[in-house]
Specification:
- There is one protein chain.
- This protein is an alpha/beta fold.
- The protein is built from twelve helices and eight strands.
- The protein has an eight-stranded parallel barrel with strand order 1-2-3-4-5-6-7-8, surrounded by four helices.
- Strand 2, helix 4 and strand 3 form a beta-alpha-beta unit.
- It starts with 6 loop residues before the first helix and ends with a helix.
- 48% of the residues are buried.
Length: 330
């Protein structure tokens, strides 16, 4: 989530884990040290999980940034035309226990993606603290989460030094895969609107800062894209297909798609038309690649679509799911 999208999340990230913040001066050395420490300790706390349930193709994704509206989230998942993948934002201030009951409640009605660290929170937790967070979340919630997002919009220039971002995503990848769980990595698409050498595009960043072992082992690689933050550019399906083909060269074993779309704020009466246009266009993209799985994961799903009986974008999302089916199933 780009920092401008949610003031609530940004403010919480600024104060998050102030007592446990670790400053990392040598990201590579820190990562090696953490790996050695965990190997010596036998990865204490990470219990091998039972077999994972199969995930659908395509993915029908939605995102919730708060679980206090839990009843509506579960009801919405049951009412959608396809069983969704509900991506849950795990606030960097909260322990895994805060989300345990919510994840267990959502899991029978929806597949679950756990967002371990939003990009807006990235600067507010050090590598070692993030490693401990990942281990705790996977140990406590691993049986109920179908795929773990180990890094979010990792090439965004607001996430911190790239060497530190690399250390964090590598640590998270190692911890999740050690527990036998699926991994996803979300990159920030900024072609035509990036910040030059200070903000690498997804392909350039991945080649330099995602280690080869991680690139080879990831289960999902996803793009986050917000037209409103990229000069209103709306790439064609052919443009997206060409870019995903480039990513496939770097991530040959991963399924590819979108991990986040939407607007900076929940839809209002004045922005409802824009929201409908975005949701309809992206979920309906016809990207004809064998490894493309859709996703999209509208960020403000809770605010824009729930409770489903009263929110005007609910019908748009239902139609968008139908369009995704038509575009990606043959």
């Amino acid at each position: 989530m780009h920092p401008t999208k949610s003031l609530k999340a940004l403010v919480s990230g600024v104060v998050a884990l102030s007592t446990t913040l670790v400053l990392v001066s040598g990201a590579g050395a820190a990562t090696k040290g953490l790996r050695a420490e965990r190997a010596a300790a036998g990865a204490v706390g990470v219990v091998p999980a039972p077999a994972m349930r199969a995930l659908p193709r395509p993915l029908y994704g939605v995102t919730v940034d708060d679980v206090t509206n839990l009843g509506a989230i579960v009801a919405g998942a049951r009412a959608l035309g396809h069983m969704p993948v509900t991506r849950i934002y795990f606030n960097v201030k909260e322990p895994a226990s805060y989300y345990a009951s919510a994840v267990r409640a959502v899991q029978p009605a929806s597949y679950v993606m756990g967002e371990l660290l939003d990009s807006s929170d990235s600067r507010h937790i050090g590598t070692a603290a993030y490693g401990r967070r990942v281990e705790s979340y996977v140990a406590q919630l691993g049986n109920s989460v179908d795929v773990w997002e180990i890094g979010n919009e990792v090439n965004g220039n607001w996430t911190g030094r790239y060497s530190t971002v690399e250390a964090k995503l590598t640590t998270a990848y190692d911890d999740v895969t050690a527990a036998g769980r699926r991994t996803a990595l979300t990159l920030y698409y900024n072609v035509g609107c990036g910040d030059g050498s200070r903000e690498l595009d997804p392909v350039s960043f991945s080649g330099r800062y995602v280690p080869a072992a991680v690139r080879s082992g990831l289960d999902y690689v996803l793009l986050s894209y917000y037209e409103g933050n990229c000069k209103g550019i709306r790439p064609s399906a052919a443009t997206w297909a060409a870019y995903f083909a480039q990513l496939h060269i770097l991530f040959p074993h991963a399924l590819l798609g979108f991990g986040e779309i939407g607007m900076d704020n929940p839809a209002t009466n004045t922005s409802l038309g824009t929201a409908r246009s975005l949701m309809t266009y992206y979920y309906g993209l016809g990207v004809d690649l064998p490894y493309y799985v859709g996703g999209y994961f509208w960020w403000y799903y809770d605010e824009d679509c729930l409770p489903y009986a009263t929110k005007p974008l609910w019908a748009t999302l239902q139609s968008a799911f139908a369009s995704e089916t038509a575009a990606l199933t043959h």
